[in-house]
Specification:
The chain has about 280 residues and is an alpha+beta fold. Helix content is about 20%, strand content about 30%. The chain is built from 4 helices and 14 strands. The protein has helices spanning about 1-15, 230-235, 240-265, 270-280; strands spanning about 25-30, 30-35, 45-50, 55-60, 75-80, 95-100, 105-110, 125-130, 130-135, 145-150, 175-180, 190, 200-205, 210-215. A 4-stranded antiparallel sheet has the order 4-3-6-7, with no helix packed on it. Strands 11-10-13-14 form a 4-stranded antiparallel sheet, with no helix packed on it. Strands 1-2-5 form a 3-stranded antiparallel sheet, with no helix packed on it. The longest helix has 27 residues, at about 240-265.
Length: about 280
């Protein structure tokens, strides 16, 4: 029973935490956007941003009360939004959904009126701490005219220290770079993703003006950016460690079961000598 209980305890300690599903569906109409919560956990401080002609994000107003940004699973919210009429990134009408989960961590999801396809070539990138360095693609002919990087830098669990009720900062505008094939060896775009090393959406504009999207995933698991290395190792190798400890516990139990009866047995001669000494 002890090894099984120990294995169960360690699995509870190092096993993955289930945070639920937080997802949304957006329906575009002529003068509004309907956002429906299709997940199974409530969200807080929900906001929907649209891109302005100057490249900044605009907080869309809601139709009716917004309940302080709270939205339960299955509920919908209407936002006032007219389709933009400006070139470049605005042609795809990207919408940025910002919200917090029950723990207070802030997340972002990107939605499109017209979902761009995958790019014909990928831009290489490297992570340097909290930054992502996006480099020029090496494909021939050179595939892009310019690129935009959309992301929400996050400090992860360190952001939970922010006092409740403080107004959240607006998302940073998309970072833009105009590529020059003759300078591809020196050109790069640096994007701050925060201590949590969040992901980035890269939107590329081709030579004919078509848009495509490249996704750079998170650099670390959400919530693990401030955990010590030994704790991350415990989580990553929890099953192996739990199994080894369970085997060790079984051996200790067997050893104890063999030693205790041996210690309880006393030789007859020693027992007689002990009795006669007491009589004196």
């Amino acid at each position: 029973m002890l090894p099984i209980a120990l294995l169960s305890l360690l699995f509870w300690l190092v096993g993955p935490a289930w945070a639920g599903n937080l997802s949304f569906q957006l329906t575009f109409h002529f003068q509004k956007v309907v956002l429906t919560h299709t997940g199974d956990q409530p969200v807080y401080e929900l906001r929907l941003y649209a891109l302005r002609p100057d490249g900044q994000w605009r907080d869309l107003p809601t139709e009716g009360p917004a309940s302080a940004g709270f939205l339960a699973p299955g509920q919908s919210r209407d936002y006032v939004h007219l389709r933009p009429d400006f070139p470049g990134l605005g042609r795809a009408d990207p919408l940025l959904v910002l919200f917090k989960d029950a723990s207070g961590l802030r997340f972002a999801q990107l939605a499109w009126r017209q979902q761009p396809p995958l790019p014909p070539a990928l831009a290489p990138f490297v992570r340097i701490g909290r930054h992502v360095l996006i480099q020029a693609p090496t494909a021939e002919p050179f595939p892009f005219r310019r690129s935009w990087a959309i992301g929400l830098p996050s400090e992860g669990i360190a952001a939970l220290a922010r006092a409740a009720g403080d107004a959240p900062s607006p998302p940073p505008p998309p970072a833009e770079i105009v590529w020059n094939p003759a300078l591809r060896s020196t050109q790069s775009l640096t994007v701050d993703t925060g201590q949590a090393q969040r992901g980035v959406w890269l939107v590329h504009e081709g030579l004919s003006g078509e848009l495509s999207v490249q996704v750079i995933g998170d650099g670390v698991a959400v919530g693990s950016e401030q955990k010590p290395a030994w704790l991350l190792g415990l989580k990553n190798h929890g099953f192996e460690m739990a199994a080894a400890l369970a085997v060790l516990a079984g051996l200790l139990v067997g050893l104890a079961a063999w030693l205790l009866p041996s210690a309880a047995r006393v030789e007859p001669g020693r027992q007689q000598a002990s009795k006669s000494k007491v009589k004196r």
